[in-house]
Structure formats: structure tokens, C-alpha cells
Amino acid sequence: MKLYNTLTRKKEEFVPLVEGQVRMYTCGPTVYNYIHVGNARPMVVFDTLRRYFIYRGYDVKYVVNFTDIDDKIINRANEENTSYKEIAEKYIEAFLEDAKGLNLLEEKTIHPRATEFIKPMIDFIQRLIDIGAAYNADGNVYFNIEAAENYGKLSKKNIEELISGARVEVSEEKRNPMDFALWKKAKEGEPCWESPWGKGRPGWHIECSVMARTLLGDTIDIHAGGEDLQFPHHENEIAQSETLTGKPFARYWLHNAMINVDNQKMSKSLGNFLLVRDIKKEFDLEVLRFFLLSAHYRTPMNFTRDIMKQMEKGLERLYNGKKNLEYLLDKTEDRPLNEEEEKHLEEIEKYKQDFIDSMDDDINTADAIASMFELVKYTNSNLNEKSSKALVSKAYQILMELANVLGILYKKDEILEEEILELIEKRTEARKNKNYKLADEIRDKLREKGIILEDTPEGVKWRRI
RNA sequence: GGCGGCAUAGCCAAGUGGUAAGGCAGAGGUCUGCAAAACCUCUAUCCCCAGUUCGAAUCUGGGUGCCGCCUCCA
Q1: A181-206, pLDDT tens digit by residue?
Q2: Which nucleotide is nearest to A452 (CA to C1')?
Q3: Least crowded by CB within 10 Å, which of A266, A289, A295, A377?
Q4: Could you read off the pLDDT of A315-357 as tens digits, one per residue?
Q5: Cβ(A79)–Cβ(A68) under 8 Å?
Q6: In this structure, is the CB of residue A418 within 7 Å of any atom belonging to strand B?
Q7: A28: nt with nearest C1' to CA
Q8: Which nucleotide is nearest, taking the CA of residue A178 and each C1'?
Q9: A125: number of CA atoms within 13 Å, CB side?
């Protein structure tokens, strides 16, 4: 499969460091607030990549960190008059809840917290000092970017220009204006840890470097995140890690594009952060997941209510295809495929191959989804009650395995309550007696309860909205 | 100023040299008591200009218009 590597700005054939294994790290949230739709994109996109790796038989080790100590968390704690720990705890819990709604494969995700890795961070920093790549300035420890080879290679930045751009914070402590903090000296009343340089806490960039290295090794296969993290965050991770180990830090860097809301950038000044849990009030989060996969991950997206409505309809179409197959599974008889059915199976396998080809091409989920629509159209048109159950079963299995790669179509029908079954029975009776008024009344009543009835030649079918 | 991205039908969105996937919406039809679902049919020459080529939405150059990063915001 090919992946677009930000480091080389090219699509490259993916070859893992160790055959059959993928070690992947995605920058996770700083837990000072609920996650918004922009945070959700890398979570969903790279979760899908991980699912695809699993589908292709790789053994995947997947890490998404929680930054649980940081200025923003401390500020938040002060605002709410509580501790940074409680803030972190609260929003980690909220994240996990949203993650569940987004159907992220949480049970297979390793979630390290920065504060659990203070010791290795201190060791890491000390080592950088030892080799002259970092220096202690009155309790603050900075990384000396001149010690790094090719600083700026990921974001293609030129150091002199960055400095002359004068947008960097000027600090008398720093030897070079571009040097960045590895360890921050504690201010009065701030949470802190003991270190060889006094009380303080780690800087942001060092967290990811240390957690990735501790959990995944010196060189990881894939490092992913939003494209806004390219600089300075990822650039600094590379500088620290590669200076320390002398090895490549990550072999493939993947970055997703940003999301606008109603054609506007989400920003603090506009106060237009759209939280995942706000979206949940109007849409099932599966629709959000489907939306996030409806465009290629490196294409900027725009989030609007209307587009979500469209996505909801599209997803419903796939669910109907699934339901139709489930219905046939129940109605068809087991027998060997005839010649015509063998051809159907070949066609169905072809759609599956199209799906795989699309995913192989830098996770082209938009194209992969199109293959699913085509598959559904094909089975809707060509399979019926007279088909062989073996064929129906195979088609269903393929549809579901593709859906599982994208993390969609996972909702199962619940068993209907006795009371509702009785109503359906009553309506069928009414229809038999051509009492359509009563029949329609019952249908409307059930619709209010979120149950859609469909009269088909084979009898009444129902589904949830 | 530096780096980068995007511009395809009413809307969303694939397609990176051979004569425009898919979805939503819309129109007509089949089926149906009516609906729903499903199926069939219909709806674009790809921002503009020039060039390369037998041939370009796809490559090159120049415009125009959006946008992102360069401020610990995914």
C-alpha cells in the first residue's frame, strides 16, 4: 500500500520496519476540554488506517497519548478552582465516551498519559544535556536546535527565516531564539515534579518523543496528526529524538487537513468550536464518522448541518443494503451456486478488490465508500429470495468486513418490544380487512417511536430510523 | 515575506495523460391500497489564458479566487 509521507512529500510504498508489524503513534488530545470536530478527524482517519492494517493482517501497536499536564490544563484548573488532575481525569473520561461514539477501536489502543512518564522524560532530557544538545538555564531546560541535523526538514522551514520572521518569542535565557523548552521551571503554586534542575514539569514536545520511544521503540513506523502540528510540534519531536538516538524517529509522517465549520475556521476568537458532544445532540456519531471518511484525509473539509444531512441519507442507504441481505439470509435456502451465481460472486469480489485498491492508495476512503455503494447496488439488484444462501451469506460477509474497516454499519437491530410487535400484527390484520385508515394510524404512531414499516411482497418489514 | 494546500454538476466528492466514479437533492417510470425500500432512465467537459502532446480535468507556464501553517489550535 502507498502512503503520502509528509517528510518526502511523496506517496511511498509502505514497508514496516519489522515485517508484519506496524508501530503507530497519533498525537492525542490535551485534556483541558471536550473534543471538537477538528480533533475528531485525525482520531477517526487514523483509527481507520489502523483498522485497515489489521484487516491486511498486520500486528498493529497503536498509541494515542493524553497530554495531561500543560498550561491550558493548569489554567482551566484555576478557572474551575480545582486541580489539574481532576481536570485531566474529567476530560479523559469525556474523550473515551466520545471515542466510543465515534467507534474508535479503543480496546486496541494504548493511551499513555504524560504524567506517567516523567521519569523517562527526565532521563531523556539529561541525556540530551550530556551530549550537549540541551542546556539548563536557571531551571528551564532548552533544546539547542543547532545540535539537530537538518532542523526544519519536516516542515521545510529555513531557520534563519524563522528567526528573522520575528514571530518567535524572545527570551534572554535562550541561546538561540528557536530553542524550545524541554523542561519548564515551576512557577509558584503550579503542579511540579522534582528533577536535577529543580522543580518543574516537562514541555509539550518531549512528551510525545518519550512516550513513543518508550512504548514503540527508537524508530516507529508511522507518526500521525493534524497538519497544524507539523511545526513546531513534530519538527521538535524529530529534533530531540533523532539527536538522542541517532536513528530516524518516524519513517512515515501522516498529516490530515483541517476542518472548517460553516466555511469558517474554528478559533478561540470566534468562539466557534464545534464539540463532538454538541453534534451528538442532532446526529448519531456514526454519521460524523461517515462524514469524516467521505473525503480524502488530506483534503480540507467543511462541516455544515446540510452536509451532515446528506451523509445521514447516504449511510442509511448502506444500512438498507445490509438489511436487505440480512432479510435474504433468513429467507434463502442453502444449495450450491449455479453458473449465474458464480458470476455474481465474481462481481461482488471485484467490488471488494476495488475497495482494497482504494485503501491501498493512501487510504482513499472516499473512493472506498463508493465501492461499497456499488456493492450494495449490485446485491440489491441481483440477489433475491431464490438466490442460494451461500451466495447471500458470502455477499453479506464481504459487505460487513469492508464496513468494519471503515468502522461503520455496526449497529444491530434490537429486539422489538412485545407491545410494538402486537401493533404491527394489528396493522397487518387491518390491512387484510382493507381498513387502511387504522393501518396508517398505526404506521404513523410507530414512526413517532422511530420505527419505519415497509410493506413488501414478502410481508411487512421494519427498521429503526 | 517564507512554506504548503485547494478550485470537478444544485450540494458533497473520487479521478493525476486516453475522451468525467459514487452519494445527496431533483425529474420521469416500475412495484405498492397509499407510502417506504429497491430497481430503471435522465441531469457536468472539470476557475481563466497560453503551451507540451496524436490526445489533458489530469503535465508546464502565467493569471484569478479561496484557505492553512509560520503564535504549544487536530
Answers
A1: 999 999 888 999 999 999 999 999 99
A2: B36
A3: A377
A4: 999 999 999 999 899 889 999 999 999 999 999 999 999 999 9
A5: no
A6: no
A7: B74
A8: B70
A9: 30
In whole angstroms, give the CA distance from residue A3 to residue A59. Answer: 18
> CA-to-CA distance for A351 and A367, rounded, in angstroms?
11
Q: How far is the CA of A411 from the C1' of B59 (A)?
A: 46
Number of other CB atoms surrounding residue A401 within 10 Å: 12
Strands A301-303, A264-265: pairing is unpaired
Nucleotide B14 C1' to residue A360 CA (A): 14
Over its C-alpha atoms, chain A yields an Rg (Å, rounded) of: 27
* Closest by CA position to A392, among listed A449, A444, A328, A436: A328
In this structure, the strands spanning A180-185 and A59-64 are: unpaired
Quote the CA–CA distance of A222 and A199 in Å, as a whole number.
34
Are A182 and A134 in contact by the 8 Å Cβ rule? The answer is yes
Nearest protein residue to nucleotide B25, judged by CA and C1' positions: A310
- Encode chain A in three state secondary structure: CEEEECCCCEEEECCCCCCCEEEEEECCCECCCCCEHHHHHHHHHHHHHHHHHHHCCCEEEEEECEECCCHHHHHHHHHCCCCHHHHHHHHHHHHHHHHHHCCCCHHHEECCEHHHHHHHHHHHHHHHHHCCCEEEECCEEEECHHHCCCCCCCCCCCHHHHHHCCCCCCCCCCCCCCCEEEEEECCCCCCCECCCCCCEEECHHHHHHHHHHHHHCCCEEEEEEEHHHHHHHHHHHHHHHHHHHCCCCEEEEEEECCEEECCEECCCCCCCCCEHHHHHHHCCHHHHHHHHHCCCCCCCEEECHHHHHHHHHHHHHHHHHHHHHHHHHHHCECCCCCHHHHHHHHHHHHHHHHHHHHHHECCCHHHHHHHHHHHHHHHHHHCCCCCEHHHHHHHHHHHHHHHHHHCCCCCCCCCCCHHHHHHHHHHHHHHHCCCHHHHHHHHHHHHHCCEEEEEECCEEEEEEC
CA of A156 to C1' of B53 (A): 34
| ipTM for the whole predicted complex goes beyond 0.90 | yes
